[in-house]
# Entry
Amino acid sequence: MRVQFILGEIWVGLRRNLSMSISVALVTMVSVLFLGLGVLAQRQVDTMKDYWYDRVQVSIFLCTDKSDLPNCSAGAVTDSQRKEIRSQLEAMKPLVKNVFPESQQQAYDRLKAQYKDSSTYREITPSQMPESYRVQLSDPTKYDVITSAFMGAPGVGDVQDQRRILDPLFNVLRGLSLGALGLAALMVLCSVLLVATTIRQTAFSRRRETGIMRLVGASAFNIQLPFILETLIATLAGSVLAIGILWALVRNGIGYLGKQLPINFITTADVWTVTPWLVGAAAGLAILTAWLTLRRYLRV
Amino acid sequence: MIRFENVTKSYLRSTTGRHRLDDAGSKPALHGVSLEIERGEFVFLVGQSGSGKSTLLRLILCEEAATSGNVLVAGRELSRLPRRKVPALRREIGTVFQDFRLLPNKNVFGNVAFALQVLGKSRQAIKAVVPETLEMVGLAGKEKRLPHQLSGGEQQRVAIARAFVNKPLILLADEPTGNLDPTTSLDIVRLLDRINHTGTTIVMATHDNGIVDQLRKRVLELEDGELVRDQMRGAYGGHR
# Structure
């Protein structure tokens, strides 16, 4: 068939079936939106993990004479204990990537810098702050190797992994992402059913045209093509709207948060990265649904 | 051009909720029909309602497959024709119905052009062929009318133009005069006769005894799915 003729038929079809076409576009928009939110939330978790896991360290806090930790009953850490810990850490390379010793004064300075406006820590003196080794690992997930090696060792008060502070946050984000993907699955099911119903109804309302096409010897492909293209156009319109909303959300919503919080957020570049996948999935599913429905309901 | 070799067609009937061949209760739509229609013939297919006329036409169009026997149309054995080759067969066959089956939102030109457009013919070809065909069926000057602005006879002429515009080898007409008055009916059959003179084979199923008696063409009569008469220059009711 000639392109101009097909376009003409599609235009007439879309106009005649306007309310159904709009509903297909809107339901597709909502499903792609949820799908996009789910995928973007996943990317957010990954972005934050990459950023934070590079920076998180395992802290080995050493005993001070004032610490009340059970392992510090023998008093403050001695020089020989300190050397022993240090050499043990050196022996654990390459898992141990870097070791930064932090003195009581440095710990005090950092605390002051972090909470300079807070009155809570005003009374604190450097001697109350624990001395520590901050250990950066080449593989942050192998935290327990350090814990089991140093927990309870002479002179060590406590071993803390900063990941434990971040993990609940990641879990919440992951939960949100899974929730969005779950809703997306439900909405995708809705769109598939709606597309199938729409095509069934359109095929019925156009049975006279398709009957004539069949009689004069148009191929099955030519008879089905306008239906598939109409569905595809409605689906693409919905997907484009969804991508627009995602872009606006990331740019204005998350962009704003990014300025307020010292966290790495996803950017509109991430939206563009997932766009081809989202649009491709929506279009592929629409074509597949249309084709299967036409096989069932359009005699060719 | 068309050959039936001992063709039987039974329909699946649902009796106990399951589909099965009900050969005990009712007769098949066609039973052991053998016939041959040569290129360029004009054949009337007569018989009462339910005698199998429409089934015979549907088998020629490959809308349905015969239960047994062979149907050969335009050199093709239909039982061996793959589905994807059915459209090519239908391009050799034009079809006209009692209820015209025009597209109400397209004008006369659009209705005839539609048959060529869906086959991918170029605009120039369509512009050349459609007016020529409309002139042949006597509708020159009425290209822009919509179907509801035409009389029954004129609507059937549009349908015939649409069936013939692609210059098919065979033209099947299923009760084409069923909705028309006697004078208009005769005009329509005369038009089919003119098309027949261009070399197109015509098979016309009809109830119209006046027309069959007047034209004296070959008559095939079906009764309860069986071919009971094949007569050259026949009349509707047999030897009269």
